[in-house]
Design goal:
Blueprint (H helix, E strand, L loop, with lengths): L2 E6 L21 H14 L8 E9 L7 H14 L1 E12 L6 H8 L5 E7 L3 H7 L5 H13 L4 E8 L6 H13 L4 E6 L7 H7 L8 H17 L3 E4 L2 E3 L6 H7 L4 E4 L4 E3 L4 E5 L3 H6 L6 E5 L2 H14 L4 E2 H8 L1 H16 L3 E4 L2 E4 L1 H5 L1 H8 L3
This protein binds iron/sulfur cluster.
The site of iron/sulfur cluster has 11 residues, from loops.
Amino acid sequence: MSGLYLHIPFCKSRCIYCDFYSTTSKENLLPAFVKAVCKELEVRREEANNDIINTIYWGGGTPSCLPVKAIAQIFDTIQKHYQIAPDAEITLEANPDDIEPQFITEIKELSINRFSLGVQTFNNNQLHFLGRRHTGENARKAVMTIAEAGFENISIDLIYSLPQQTLKDWEIDVNTALELPIKHLSAYSLMYEEGTRLTALRNRGIIEETEDELSVALFNSLIDRTTTAGFEHYEISNFALSGYRSRHNSSYWNNSPYIGIGPGAHSFDGKYSRRCNKENLMTYSCNPGHPPHSIEKLNDAERCDELVFTALRTCEGLDMEILTQKFGNKIARHIIANAQPHIAGGLLSQNGNKLKLTHRGIFLSDMVMRDLMIG
Ligand code: SF4
């Protein structure tokens, strides 16, 4: 067993681009939710098979919305029912406006050793547009408060290709991030997800999506600046100083097993089975330990496609020897044949058994991956 994921579905307000499951009301359900999380951890402990838990990730939603007492109660339950590695990576996602010295002092008493801060941008106009509650200055101060409290493993999230964002704006964001004592940076292109206010604004013609050419320039500038600052570009959207890759996310990309707890949380047994808890706080809280969920059984073609998709996103690339061991020669030959035009076209490189996206291939990764998939 590799990881535990805890989905905390509370937010103080909704950001206009977000399609993650969370609620801004129903705080009255918090005690029942915490109780249900503890019960689900207990009921599903068998799924860990007594394996060591190497990573714990508090995501959401906004885990930093939770009272520290609730975080401690859930932690106690984890420690009671699971074997945690002494050097486990334990990440708390947090919003900059929740980072007060008092909160950090109390969190320090728990075993959390990594923060992932949802900064998104340091530009106040863009933050306001996105519906974030913090300012650029709040974000800078939050990183410093966490660092000064002795947490060294700090990651921040940024978003690029924001409406009306210029290359200069983005360079300021990346430079500001790199001046801070962070060890890890995740940077995502803004996605227009169905059902979000952002997509409604675009559909009504109030905002426009960023042109492809500018998006490529923003991404290139990101890669240049981060790698010059000593960060390794180890996954399409992720950059880390040496020794600070996200171990939890890396386990997703390696197809390792994990247990997801909470409404909307996903789990994977590392082989054939994915589980998804229903996205409903009320039913989750009213069925402690036994939340409604669905289970999807993956066939070989789907598992192979997942391996292709996740491996090609990483700087290690797709190891065809591993793929052949798992899925056989016929499938491997099919993938290699479909890779040939992209190798010839400079979007993929082949080095021994490894297929990797080239710098140019990263921009067309969706198309390349689609062509290599067999499902
Ligand atoms: S704080 Fe995070 S989870 Fe909550 S709405 Fe904003 S982006 Fe989504």
